[in-house]
Predict the structure.
Amino acid sequence: MITKTELDKLVEKYETVNFIKDDPVQFPHRFKDKKDIEIAGFIASLFAYGSRKQFISKLNEFFKYTENEPTNFIKNGDFSIIKSQNFNYRFSKPDDIVEWLRLLSELYNTSNGLEELFAYSYNQDNTLDTMYRVVADYFYSRVNNGFGQGFYHLLPDSRKGGAMKRVNMFLRWMVRKSDVDLGVWDFIPKSELRIPLDVHVARLSREMLLLNRKNNDMKSVIELTNKLKTFDPYDPVKYDFALFGKGVEEIDNKVILS
């Protein structure tokens, strides 16, 4: 099993500003206003699956539509541009994306936005499991009829047992404060965050004997996060940089050499 010293060295190597340019965290980093940061981060997290090159390209296209004013776009924008430009991504068609924008517009025009929603959800019993469910139910209960996989895939239902990788990544961005993470929310202790489990993190975690479970699901997320807490109980998800960064670097090196 990898040692804490070895893992800490990998964090030091990868948790730098150089990490930002190739990661979806680049999108909230483009903004200074807190609401712009959280909206940009949330939207970036919705689309952050599949090929990095593909979804970063799609997100660059999306933020052009916002004219780099995400809060103004959400609160006052004309979402018809999504349909007129046939903006889509994998499972999600323009109508699915417009429905998400409509729901965010309703949220920001009737409340303090995502921070208020997530804080309210977390404060029900101070657990991420309840927060996942309450946030999803807020959106699910307000969606218009007729939407299917393309809508719901963007924010999965945690009750199905999935790893909730993109939500955990979004929370890392919003709660931790570092050269990479923005740390604009303070209602969740960073000690309570969970590892964003993607294929790179899962593979390396098993190779390093940090994770025994074979499925990439929430049980694995909890197992791995608890193991990482033995290295740092106050900030376990900092090791996401070590595992993800090294995993991606290994894949990129294989591509270069092949």
In short: The chain has one domain: 4-257. The two ends are 29 Å apart (CA to CA). The mean pLDDT is 94. Residues 239-257 form the longest helix (19 residues).
